[in-house]
Polyamine aminopropyltransferase (Thermacetogenium phaeum), 274 residues
Amino acid sequence: MSYQFVEEHSSAYKVQWGINEVLYSEKTPYQNLSIVDFVELGRALVLDDAVQTTIQDEFYYHEMIAHVPLFTHPDPRDVLIIGGGDGGTAREVLKHKSVRRVDLVEIDERVIAACKKYLPEISCSFDDPRLNVIIADGVEYIKRPENEYDVVIIDSSDPVGPAIELFSKDFYKDVYHSLRPDGIMVAQTDSPCFNAKFFKEIFFSISAQFSLTKAYLVCVPSYISGFWSFTLGSKKYNPVEDYRKEPVIATRFYTPELHKASFVLPRFIEELLK
Ligand code: SAM
């Protein structure tokens, strides 16, 4: 182990990672990008000193952000991913045979290039002909489509830099309009442990648009606190009742039982979201 990397949640809470090797590093027009090989959890994408994904636990996050909405919608055909430049969410979405088009809107083309080279296990679906990569700001892109998507997945970085507006009320309003009348959106919504106030605000911003809004929880070891949230907004289907119970794709984390169980919230979170 030659280096240490410190991920700082605040001046009072930091996570120290041992690094075998820094494989790549660049300052892009949007953020500092690194690909590192951690002693624990292996190769990883790091943006602005925040761990985004590691090859050993990426499937916890990518399977749960993708399959929960895709197994709730009965026939997902057109899917939009905002962010997600590592390709992990697209890889999972494209496992669904019903899906005929995935638009992936990533602001930073350098993230895609670096992940294609150094994280091929995660970025392996960029050559799928159903995937259209659009290099653009998701906030601007989402203003155009009307009734176009069955599922919109917001796989953004944390609310800093170019991702701040991806957590705004106006953005969720535009997401709502981009969806068909039975559409579903899901967003990664941070740690309910360390960022409870933010998580609550986002939940209410999404529920201001969608008749059904539900948070679900996953443990992602490489994220600060491990405890991570997603928030789903739906125009019609209830992810706890309407999900398909016999998925026919290969998964390592997602199961139909876990799909349902992940919506069972600890009491303090139920209280927070009242
Ligand atoms: N799984 C990760 C997490 O929760 O830490 C997020 C994955 S990821 C690679 C997030 C991506 O969102 C980054 O590649 C970043 O460039 C992209 N992004 C940030 N702001 C964006 C915006 N306004 N429009 C489109 N993509 C954006």
User: Anything to note?
Assistant: The longest strand covers residues 13-27. The chain has a mean pLDDT of 95. The CA atoms of residues 212 and 234 lie 5 Å apart. The chain has two domains: 3-54, 58-272.
